[in-house]
Amino acid sequence: MAVYNTDIAAVFEEIADLLEIEGANPFRIRAYRNAARVIRDLSREAGDMIADGADLTELPGIGEDLAAKIHEIVHSGTCVMLRKLKKRTPPALIELLKLPGLGPKKVKVLYHELDIHSLEQLARAARDGRIRSLHGFGEKTEAKILHSIEMQAGATARFKLAVAAQYGERLVSYLKAVPGVDHVVVAGSFRRYKETVGDLDILVTANRTSPIMDHFVNYDEVAEVIAKGTTRATVRLRSKLQVDIRVVAKQAYGAALHYFTGSKSHNIAIRKIGQEMGLKINEYGVFRGKQRVAGQTEESVYAAVGLPYIEPELRENRGEIEAARAHRLPRLVELADLRGDLHAHTQATDGRNTLREMAEAAQARGFEYLAITEHSRHLTVAHGLTPQRLLAQMDEIDRLNAGIKGITLLKGIEVDILEDGTLDLPDDLLGRLDIVVAAVHSHFDLSRARQTARILKAMDHPHFSILAHPTGRLIEERAPYDADMLRIIRHARERGCFLEINAHPERLDLLDIYAQMAKEEGVLVAINSDAHSANQFDNLRFGVGQARRGWLEKSDVLNTRPLKELRALLARTL
Ligand code: DGT
Ligand code: CA
Ligand code: CA
Fold first, then answer.
1. pLDDT band at residue 296, thresholds of 50, 70 and 90?
2. Calpha distance 425→313 (Å, rounded)
3. Are strands 196-197 and 200-206 parallel, antiparallel or unpaired?
4. What is the pLDDT of residue 94?
5. Nearest ligand to the C-alpha of residue 195?
6. Closest ligand 1 atom, residue 188 Cα
7. Which domains does the chain have, with CATH numbers?
8. What is the 259 CA–ligand 2 centroid distance (Å)?
């Protein structure tokens, strides 16, 4: 049984939540939250470190007790303390914690003040208007709680793409090692780089004697076998992620891959074109009468209906078939096209690594430049930089740039856009930076008109370069703020500034449709990692996936430009 860092972090987060509901010592609670973050940001799996005999107490904030718990979790998947805590907490409270917008503090109040033990009781209290008068709640929160209960009742949980990737990719390498197996690929929404996936759809080609199905259901992460036949099976993993597997013959690989990649509405549209040409298209191939005319590769399926190959990220039936027919498909941007990253943090604020470590990691990826963009002072939770501390960092960057070859650090900031649209640092200071990344981090609830005006005003600032994570959403946790994105994009064009696709797995913001809107309006998009540690540059692939879903080409992306061109583009706005 493999235990990943995300599993360990989840155990610690849950311990912290339950301790908080109990009203435990805040320092103790914080120690667990901190440990969760440290583990989540490790560049190696803690399990591997333990196997190598590493001393975990050398990690920041990890003492003997936490190190012992990490060992325990790595070996057993959980820990005794969590089990004990769970035993003495009413189970419904643990359910309440899972509702977006309800943290341990609020759950504690609901439990103690209203004696709420279940979701039904909570919904009733919200409907009766009994929640709004509680300390720290109010009418808005009450409405939100009711909304999220109703949402949860209707929807089944989806997994963030990066989380699904972690489980999916390990399963793929496990399956590739099975005798007689040829291709193993994750199809479905995962292959289309959708920001969340409902389940994984794994397609395998194997010879007839391969023991693939038995191996699949015996994978040590499998919690439940829902169905098992000779060519298909469905399981649920311990993480609750459901996985479908389908085994096909080699000559049907392309047809099956096309079928299981979807989207369903893309498939239906392609099948319809086939029908008009007298062809039958299914997961086994493309047929004219009884004769198979295509299906070995995806290209052959498209060619059979007179179309060029269409990339998976485009297959949403949003105009890609028409574009293919007119030979106007975009040549989508690729990870290798990126020449740098324009949004990253270091230890100076809430990052994990030093300037030098971040520079070296970026250089190791072959980057030509990296912008260091710490938070500004308004974000006190992230130890935002004061003007003085920013000046000190700028000097440090000068020294580092003088000493390091092959990569240039750009001086930047992730400055807060304050409620009135002003920026959270003095103009003269912003003017001395190479790049000003600006973002909304507060007052998400402003009316559409005020939120839009706030952002437009910020863009009017002469030093504004990039609007970071432009809709503020956190996937499955916080809805996008209400703002007129078309006006913002058009204003960006007028002002010569740019929008970001933030590659952080919880953000992936711009959303794909707005990335496409930016392209159509002629606004360049930066694909940024927002890395808080050196290993988080890996997240860029998800940002690139999002960009591809937005039809972006290399030329639509700001940070595909060589440094000299980038500087010229930034100078327009500085
Ligand atoms: P998800 O899992 O909700 O994130 O979305 P998908 O797209 O992965 O959907 P899923 O897992 O239900 O099915 C995988 C693929 O199989 C889907 O993208 C297209 C194909 N598929 C499923 N059902 C149908 C169907 O009824 N007709 C057609 N043409 N294709 C289907
Ligand atoms: Ca799926
Ligand atoms: Ca499926």
1. very high
2. 39
3. unpaired
4. 81
5. 1
6. 8
7. 5-154 (1.10.150.110), 159-247 (3.30.460.10), 252-325 (3.30.210.10), 335-571 (3.20.20.140)
8. 12
